[in-house]
Amino acid sequence: MDLPLPSITRYAPAKINLALHVTGRRPDGYHLIESLAVFTRFGDRVGVSASDEDRFSVNGPFAAYVPLDDTNLVLRARDALRAAYPGPAVTPVAITLEKNLPVASGIGGGSSDAAAALRGLAEFWAIDDAAALLRIGLSLGADVPMCLAATPLVAHGIGDGLTTVPGFPALGLVLVNPGIAVSTADVFGALAQRDNAPLPPLPPSIDFHSLRNWLETTRNDLEPVARTLEPAIGAAAAALDRAGSSFTRMSGSGATCFGLFETGNVAKRAAVAIRGRHPGWFVAATRSTASEDEAHG
Length: 297
Prior knowledge:
By secondary structure, this protein is an alpha+beta fold.
């Protein structure tokens, strides 16, 4: 009797930039940033299983918007990891992507998918080399290393310098996207100023209230430009405010906005209210994952 084929599933959480300061630009055109980012319990899923040949399939509510060719970061992650570890142990695989996050929406979906694919494939192919995954991840995009970490962190440089944040609590969040995709390149290209002040120091003790007060002193330097390019971002933020968000901001280069809520139940009620007023929008109530010490403390 044949044994069941092994299968590995890895979660690809949404990445939320709670604050994002653009602090400069390198001669090669890459922008320098400082960003406080968290990762949510809601996201995509990447499955890896044995196959007679390489296969790739996508399902989920946003599957229709996912490219199936080698522009897809999941396939590029597979090919890059295989190229770094050629040999008979790196067997053909069937990869499935459950796409629950809207594409080009400022919450790192493609980068998180690539990170999940790297983690899943490394386990499937018995590759134990965290440094190689980081190196390959950075070659795929500046957001992939932070998505590999997937813990509360401050990213700096082009996004590749990572400092984890201890003692960071889970947060109640509502994510809202008004059904539009925003080009990251267009947003960065339209910036009038690229040498802004860095993030202020984080509070010594982080809880909901100290974090909210700290966020009031920070910015997303991409938000004013993105709102000009896509005015619906303002409508999404207004919907969160109307639903009782304690703090509202756009994530990344948009168009997804997040609202901060003191409890998960309050977030769920707010999501229901927003969905009722805007049935065509993407609306998700979720929680971010706490830092490891906080989660196990």
